[in-house]
Automatic annotation (TrEMBL):
Reported cofactor(s): pyridoxal 5'-phosphate
Taxonomic classification: Bacteria, Bacillati, Cyanobacteriota, Cyanophyceae, Nostocales
SUPFAM superfamilies recorded: PLP-dependent transferases
Name the record gives this protein: Alanine--glyoxylate aminotransferase family protein
Keyword Transferase applies: yes
Domain Aminotransferase class V, chain residue ranges per copy: 20-321
Organism: Anabaena subtropica FACHB-260
A single MF term (Gene Ontology): transaminase activity
Length: 380
């Protein structure tokens, strides 16, 4: 029940266990062609969706360095661990970074981006980098509004970390005109870590032609050229791609609207349960991500709760990062997660809280609140 790596379906694990096939064979090219088509479906795009043998961080790095040059002025939103990471990646490559911040657990203010972009009459801002769903806190930033401000600017690219939002909430790449959208396999794709995805618009490819930052393995032009022949420029993670083929089929069978509705239902049930247990939530309802829920336990160390859950129920939750370490725990509800998983998680959490001496809730209150919210959604 972590926000990554997420649970993996049995059919995907069985596909992963197959003997590797040659990555230059027609058999693998056929698999890659299907995977690419389904990636475009999930992204709601006709743009290139490129497959890289990297983690999410590697994919975001590729999404930044392929379209910019040293000294370029960019805006980066940072209201959590991963927004701050993209600041650090950009600075490492000599970009002129202006950071727009918010307190961890609070959303980025779109008006701050609007002010910067509107004041840039010389069109010096080359890109805006946004983390859509901030995994360290569970905040869902207002990508749609920020993107509208970027579009009014006219020339700046929008580069989106959609690592815990793609396949969780609606990210209509073409309809919104998003330029670079990054995601990774161990989140809503329900596949083990090891694959990063970068979706690239025609506008971004135009910027690629003049970008001068150094790159080789992460040169997306190589991946674009290889993709036209249903192949890859370097040795790909063959078994991960074969496994991904199965999960993308599962997602397509479920359908986009059902996927988004399921994640919203799980979010609402989880948050209702935590409120039923009288535990504080880090993030307000209005900007809570359907990917995960961050809880701020009172009077009990967060890591002690996590440790007991692991020992008693073999249930793993994520902890806090940086200054939130041991102050929060995070319940992931993205990817291969069902209503039953949420109910089991909350029931286990209730037992552990009781064992640790928590007196703040009536036994069963969390499970009852989650059940009520699920039934409210199903029968509404």
């Amino acid at each position: 029940m972590m926000p990554g790596p997420t649970p993996v379906p049995e059919t995907t694990l069985l596909a992963l266990a197959k003997h590797p096939i040659g990555h230059r064979t027609q058999e693998f090219s056929n698999i890659l062609a299907e995977v690419t088509a389904n990636l475009k479906w999930l992204h709601q795009t006709e743009n290139n969706v490129l497959i890289l043998n990297v983690s999410g961080t590697g994919a975001v790095e590729a999404g930044i360095i392929n379209f910019l040059s040293a000294g370029d002025r960019i805006l980066v939103g940072a209201n959590g661990k991963f927004g701050q990471r993209w600041v650090e990646v950009s600075q490492a490559y000599g970009l002129n970074v202006e950071t727009i911040t918010a307190e961890w657990g609070k959303p980025l203010d779109p008006s701050l981006f609007a002010e910067k972009l509107q004041a840039d009459t010389q069109k010096q801002i080359k890109a805006v980098v946004i983390t859509h769903s901030e995994t360290s806190t569970g905040v869902l930033n207002d990508l749609e509004t920020i993107n509208r401000h970027v579009k009014k600017h006219g020339t700046a690219l929008i580069i989106v970390d959609a690592i815990t939002s793609l396949g969780v909430v609606n990210v209509p790449v073409d309809a919104w005109g998003l330029d670079v959208v990054v995601s990774s396999s161990q989140k809503a794709y329900m596949t083990p870590p090891g694959i990063g995805f970068v979706c690239v618009s025609p506008k971004a490819w135009k910027a690629y032609q003049t970008a001068k930052l150094p790159k080789y393995y992460l040169d997306l032009g190589k991946y674009r050229q290889a993709a036209t022949k249903d192949t890859t420029p370097f040795s790909p993670p063959v078994n991960l791609i074969v496994a991904l083929q199965t999960t993308l089929r599962m997602l397509k069978e479920e359908g986009l609207e059902s996927i988004f509705a399921r994640h919203e239902r799980l979010k609402n049930a989880t948050r209702a349960a935590i409120k039923g247990l009288n535990l504080p939530l880090l993030v307000e309802d209005s900007f809570a991500s359907p990917a995960l829920t961050a809880v701020v336990p009172q009077g009990i160390e967060a890591d002690k709760i996590r440790s007991f859950l692991k020992q008693r129920f073999d249930l793993e939750l994520a902890g806090g990062q940086d200054h939130l370490k041991n102050k929060i725990f995070r319940i992931g509800h993205l990817g291969f997660v069902s209503d039953r998983d949420i109910l089991s998680c909350i029931a286990s959490l209730e037992v552990v809280l009781a064992e640790l001496g928590y007196k703040g809730a009536v036994p069963g209150a969390g499970v009852a609140a989650a059940q009520f919210k699920m039934m409210e959604t199903i029968y509404s």
